[in-house]
Amino acid sequence: MITQERLKQVLHYNQLTGRFTWLVDLSSHRSKGKRAGWVNGPYRYIGIDHKVYSEHALAFIWMIGVFPEEVDHKDRKGANNIWRNLRVATHSQNHGNRTKLSTNTSGYKGVCWDKSRNKWMSHIMVRGKRITIGRFNTPEQAAEAYRLKALELFGEFARCS
């Protein structure tokens, strides 16, 4: 793992823009003043000393000298590494900030139709386990039950839509 000292020798981090720029010339692709890194999927990555790091990991190393187990992007945009958008999270908290799945048919996160009971069911994932919150007459009632449980379990990390 890269140290804060080494990171600050080769890169500058602008906490207001979330961008890293090279402080030294390391190669033709890594020249002084140029923005560092590349996008792969939702995240940005930077290669330093033959090792690849996520930008959000490097932001924590730059700012506080350590990298937490998980980082959550408050706005759910993985390439937005502005310091105020990043926060330390547990795995469950990080997943609490996810949007509803693309396969969702109810229109509400954590809500599905239970055809065996002809009711709307709400459920939530906590530490890899699915917990049934309850069954309800309307999808709105199930969604409200989900919202309350998510706030109880995830607090500021709760994303209910």
Structure description:
This protein has 161 residues and is an alpha+beta fold. Helix content is 24%, strand content 30%. The chain has helices at 4-10, 55-64, 91-96, 139-154, and strands spanning 11-14, 19-22, 38-40, 43-48, 51-54, 70-73, 86-89, 111-114, 119-126, 129-136. It has a three-stranded antiparallel sheet with strand order 3-4-5. A three-stranded antiparallel sheet has the order 8-9-10. Strands 1-2 form a two-stranded antiparallel ribbon. A hairpin with a 2-residue loop joins β9 and β10. The longest helix is centred in the C-terminal third of the chain and has 16 residues, at 139-154. The two termini are 36 Å apart.
Short characterization:
With 161 residues, the protein is an alpha+beta fold. The chain has helices spanning 4-10, 55-64, 91-96, 139-154, and strands at 11-14, 19-22, 38-40, 43-48, 51-54, 70-73, 86-89, 111-114, 119-126, 129-136.
Explain the layout of strands and helices.
Blueprint: H1 4-10, E1 11-14, E2 19-22, E3 38-40, E4 43-48, E5 51-54, H2 55-64, E6 70-73, E7 86-89, H3 91-96, E8 111-114, E9 119-126, E10 129-136, H4 139-154
Antiparallel strand pairs: 1-2, 3-4, 4-5, 6-7, 8-9, 9-10
Helix pairs in contact: 1-2
Shape: elongated
- The first-to-last residue Cα distance is 36 Å
What is the average of the pLDDT values?
A: 89
Strand content: 25-35%
Structural class: alpha+beta
Strand order of the largest sheet: 3-4-5
Order of helices and strands: HEEEEEHEEHEEEH
Biggest sheet character: 3 strands, antiparallel
